[in-house]
Amino acid sequence: MQRILVLNPKGGSGKTTIATNLASYFASQGDRPLLQDNDPQASSSRWLKKRKPDQSIINGIAAFERNAGVTRAWQMRIPPDAGHVIVDTPAAVPAQEMPDMTKNADAIIVPVLPSDIDIHACSKCIADLLLIAKVRRDEYRIGVVANRVKRNTVIYQSLMRFLESLRIPVIATLRDSQNYVRAAEQGVGLFEMKRYVVEQDLEDWRPMLAWLKAKESAAQPAGSLDPVPAGSLPVSA
């Protein structure tokens, strides 16, 4: 089982967009992923509720809720057939909580938007992961996603220079696309939409999926997982 943490203490960075689309991708691969919503805003949970019965199964846990009728361990249980757990973290995570939050994560994805405020917030987030959560660079568990970018802009160039200075891999650059808005409204992911509509966006996702597959393959004692070859991303016809 691969546990993927989507983290950035600054709100509005695109954590839920990445978490829900990852869940959609793994579901389309035949897995029954678990989407764990730790954010009291409940955006991931609302997205799950929009899904139709005939869609690929994605299990969900509203981890921000406290149910007095069951134990916390029972509420947080992971289904035995879940090959991937995607954790949508809340905004404003205190730095002192990061060690517990990240200790069992196989991959930590940090989305960042192209703005001065977001660049500063990302810098602090990475510093807290390295210095307080003690996530070592040589573990290669942290990957940055440049989100909602417009490549032909000055701020995008500034963002990429900043990310290069971190010495943390940039695992994807996602363009500013209305397809993410449409997917969220419908309770689907890009991988469940018509290919001709989302083909350009799917290409943006390929490096991130390859990074995750490589980490999953490296963690397995025997055998390996195939990379994500060109043209193989499953979407509706």
Structure characterization notes:
- With 237 residues, the chain is α/β, with parallel strands linked by helices.
- The chain has a single domain (2-219), classed as P-loop containing nucleotide triphosphate hydrolases (Rossmann fold).
- The chain contains 8 helices and 7 strands; from the N terminus they run E-H-E-H-E-H-E-H-E-H-E-H-E-H-H.
- It has helices spanning 15-28, 43-49, 72-75, 98-102, 116-131, 154-166, 178-186, 195-219, and strands spanning 2-6, 34-37, 59-62, 84-88, 107-112, 142-149, 170-175.
- A 7-stranded parallel beta sheet has the order 3-2-4-1-5-6-7, sandwiched between helices.
- Helix 1 packs parallel to helix 2 (43-49) and helix 5 (116-131) runs parallel beside helix 6.
- The chain is globular and about 50 Å long.
- The two termini are 29 Å apart.
In short:
The chain has 237 residues and is an alpha/beta fold. Helix content is 39%, strand content 16%. The protein has one domain: P-loop containing nucleotide triphosphate hydrolases (Rossmann fold, 3-Layer(aba) Sandwich).
Break the fold down into its secondary structure elements and pairings.
Layout: E1 2-6, H1 15-28, E2 34-37, H2 43-49, E3 59-62, H3 72-75, E4 84-88, H4 98-102, E5 107-112, H5 116-131, E6 142-149, H6 154-166, E7 170-175, H7 178-186, H8 195-219
Parallel strand pairs: 1-4, 1-5, 2-3, 2-4, 5-6, 6-7
Helix pairs in contact: 1-2, 5-6
Task: Label this structure with key terms.
Rossmann fold, seven-stranded parallel beta sheet, 237 residues
